[in-house]
Fold this sequence. Notes:
globular, about 230 residues, six-stranded mixed sheet, four-stranded antiparallel sheet, alpha/beta, Rossmann fold
Amino acid sequence: MSTLVSIRNLTKTYQRGPEKVHVLHGLDLDIGKGDFVALMGPSGSGKTTLLNLIGGLDTPSSGEIEIDGQRLDRMSAGQLSNWRSDHVGFVFQFYNLMPMLTALKNVELPLLLTRLGAGDRKRRAEIALQLVGLGDRVKHRPNELSGGQQQRVAIARAIVSDPTLLICDEPTGDLDRQSAEEILGLLQTLNREHGKTIVMVTHDPKAAEYASHTLHLDKGTLVEQAAHAY
Length: 230
């Protein structure tokens, strides 16, 4: 498996008043293309900070982040924004759907940043919704969908641009167990059958079992890596 994400000596420090808070400490990490990684660890361990750095939502204090041959740590804010729109799909705990838009229009949103015409945007959004099992819900608004269905719309929106990488921050944290298992099964299918590389933060050991690898962080350092029977 070739390397997609290469991280070397990564640090992240925040200024909180007069105090410097060290979140990540000299982290080294490789993630292969087609991998499904679960990031686990106690609150404050640096999971979400690392996820945001890999997704280009934040910049490191020092160190290197290279994704698919591109150095994120050398990019300007504008370059990072363009890189994210081309290469990363995001799935969050609370869906972040636009309540006044249909499922179809929500999924189309990332495509508004491209040069695609209206017809092509619609076709791609329909395909993405079919892929997540919501081909019959294209005209429904978020308040007409269950929590699990709303998260499926969010996943369709994340994959509609065919990104290199899916970044998932507690994607099942707001769902009941059955809905959570359906979403995790969908992510596993996207990984296994469609080759999507996925990095997922979760507190749930059962959720982590759907991944191919689990990385454990504690106090900003990588303390354990485990491969699953996959």
